[in-house]
Each structure stands twice: as structure tokens, then as C-alpha cells.
Amino acid sequence: MANPVIIFVIGGPGSGKGTQCEKICKKYGFTHLSTGDLLREEVASGSDLGQSCNEVMKKGKLVSNEQVLALLKKAIHNNSRTNGFLIDGFPRQLDQAIAFEKEVSPCNIILFFRCSDDVMIKRLMNRGLTSGRVDDNEETIKHRLDTFHDNSVPIVEHFGEKVVSIWAEREPNVIFNDVVRALDTLPKGSKEVKK
Ligand code: AP5
Ligand code: MG
């Protein structure tokens, strides 16, 4: 694999991770891997693993680190021709980050989209009218927020200056200007990824 950049994208549920990742991919051509999407694909496949993941996601809890990391490694392996991976919704726990960096590659930068709970709830309730996602309902959204608040601080503290914190209660294009400013400082591929 030709030294892809690794970007972690974190933020609460509905903070706009997916929306910004779409824009980033268009501009930089990185490969977008959303752990939530990978898990929903597994659910859709009808596998036993998918069924058990669905139960966890319905409760707004975290799927086990081993399962998430296995799905992520497979997706990385299947997309080996890329100049970078945009890993959306990961890490959700510090242990995930540590395991990834040990077993796959160090990350170059972490984008952290910050948003108040009230705004995230409003966005997700609104999306829930049409999304069909098992977790876009009032009760699960509360649990997703709790899970996020319980786990995000150690990640941010651990990565220190690698974390670029971006206020995400603005227009998507305005937020994206800050994203571009952060990503334009990255070297053009500098890490070796283990398969
Ligand atoms: P995941 O799918 O990652 O869900 P999430 O983190 O809860 O966040 P969302 O995808 O709902 O929101 P988003 O931040 O991407 O925002 P979006 O751009 O869509 O994870 C789902 C579940 O899978 C987890 O709860 C967990 O169970 C499991 N899981 C996933 N990763 C895991 C991991 N690493 N380890 C263990 N378990 C894991 O925007 C939301 C809405 O807001 C949209 O309608 C959008 O149009 C709108 N919007 C976006 N930006 C703006 C803006 N700037 N202004 C106004 N509206 C906006
Ligand atoms: Mg998302």
C-alpha cells in the first residue's frame, strides 16, 4: 500500500461527520470508511454478527472493539489503492485508537466536530423522519449522546495536538473551510500501513 494518510473523524451523533466526510472525499479523493456504515452493511447482510451488532446499535451502545477493528481492517485491505483513509466514527474509545495505531497505522490528524446536544438531537430527530435508521429515535439518541460523552474525553486528551476541534453548528460550507485549512497542513502520504 502506498503510504496513505490516516484521518480519524470524531464527534457526537449528528454532529455532521458524514456530511463533512463527503465533502472531504470530493476534494481530496480519500477513501471514506464510516464504521457506522460498515456495521449497517453487516446488519444488511443478515449475518449472525450483523444481528448482534444491530441489537447493540438499537441501544445506542458501542459494538465491541474487536468486531469494529476487524471490519475496518477488512475494508482497508479491500481499498488498498488510495492516498488516504477518512475513518468516520472512529475511534469511539481510546482502546480502539491504540489498537488501530499498533495493528494498522498511526493516524496523522483527528477532526473533532463539536456541537451542542440540543442541536444534535434536533438534527437526528429530523433525519429520523425519513432515514429508517434503528437508532434515530428519541430514546436511542439519548443513549448515543451518553455513550459519546462517556468516551470522548480520553481520546481528545490522549491525542492532544493532533486533534483539530471544529465548531459544527454553522453552515456545512463554512465548517468545511476550517476542515480544508486543517487538512492542507498534512504531508502527502507519509505512513506505511500494515495489511
Ligand atoms: P454512526 O453511524 O457513526 O452514527 P453516529 O456517530 O451516531 O452519527 P451519525 O452518523 O448519525 O451522524 P453524523 O455525525 O455522521 O452526522 P450527519 O452528517 O449524518 O454509528 C452508529 C452506531 O454504530 C453507534 O451508535 C454504535 O452503536 C455503532 N458504532 C459505530 N462506530 C463504532 C465504533 N467505532 N465502535 C463501536 N461501535 C460503533 O448529519 C446528521 C444530520 O444533520 C443530517 O440530516 C445532516 O443533513 C444534518 N447536518 C449535518 N451537518 C449539518 C450542518 N452543519 N447544519 C445543519 N444540518 C446538518
Ligand atoms: Mg455518520
What is the strand and helix layout of this fold?
Elements lengths: L4 E7 L5 H12 L2 E4 H10 L3 H11 L6 H13 L6 E5 L5 H10 L5 E6 L2 H12 L9 H22 L3 E5 L4 H12 L12
Parallel strand pairs: 1-3, 1-4, 2-3, 4-5
Bound molecules: BIS(adenosine)-5'-pentaphosphate and magnesium ion.
What features would you describe in this structure?
- It comes from Oppiella nova.
- Keywords: ATP-binding, Cytoplasm, Kinase, Nucleotide-binding, Transferase.
- Its EC number is 2.7.4.3.
- This is adenylate kinase.
- Belongs to the adenylate kinase family.
- The protein has about 200 residues and is an alpha/beta fold.
- It has a domain at about 5-35 and about 85-185: P-loop containing nucleotide triphosphate hydrolases (Rossmann fold, 3-Layer(aba) Sandwich).
- The chain is built from eight helices and five strands; from the N terminus they run βαβαααβαβααβα.
- A five-stranded parallel sheet has the order 2-3-1-4-5, sandwiched between helices.
- It is globular and about 40 Å long.
- The termini are close together.
- Residues about 190-195 have low confidence and may be disordered.
- BIS(adenosine)-5'-pentaphosphate (AP5) binds near residues 62, 135 and 168.
